[in-house]
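Hey, I'm writing a tutorial for new members on how sequence and structure tokens pair up, and I'd like a real worked example in the thread rather than a made-up one. If someone can provide the structure for the chain below, I'll link this post from the tutorial.
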Amino acid sequence: MNQAGKVVQQHDHKIPGFAFIHDFAITPNYCLFFQNPVSFNPLPYVLGFRGAAECIKFHRRSPTKIWLIPRDPSQEVQVLETDPCFVFHHANAFEQGDELIVDSVCYETFPGIDHNLNYQEIDFDARPPAQLWRFQLNLKTKTAQRDLLVERSCEFPFIHPDRIGKPHQCIFLAAAHQPQGDAPQQAIIKVDPEYGEQEFWSAAPKGFLGEPVFVPRPGSTQEDDGWVLTLVYDADHNRTDVVILDGTSLEKGAIAFGTGLCPIARLHLKHHIPYGLHGSFTNERMKYEE
């Protein structure tokens, strides 16, 4: 697909076994897919006893397979193996010499779901935290090495859209307020994956947020120059706020407020918005008609 969104080339590849693939990463020459070590038993779901996610079994002794599919269909597909882990979302990937670098949010096992429990009944201490890892995939030695970038539980990575498939210097993620263990997402962190520097903004104790969306400042050449937008549920008022932070510094222009810091803008909606997964931004005003 070119920059105008037109499909210019198509090719198919088959992956043996069951594949739970939610996301993938792309570089100028490769598409990268993580095949999580899971199997699926559809019978309880078909009979109505369990939800689909409850029928997934994680295999701790099986490796996670990383499929490197060349964008040139004349080149061969490569498969590398890494330690067992479960990946929903990738932040980005890029090429560096003989290596492919991938930053991904990983769980040590599949985060199981029990449809009989509501959100307030979940035992977060029993759940594996999602953490940001960097994978170094060596195309010559056919090996994969991974290093922990962020220990704090985090999800929904977002980068500058112009850096997709290229080296990046910052990642924005929704994160837990507490530094260790799994917990609801109440904060945003900004991470420099190369040097490990982090910035932190929290809506705790009564704020619960979703994916951060980065909006670049028009004409800017700085990777983090822009705004970070997210929806925050305010449990005190049973409403959702649109929160806007400065991408260059999550605390810039903020003033002390309770246990956290006020953003540069907080827009109160009249009601709450149910949680979703991913967000996007457009400069154009959308018109909806019933």
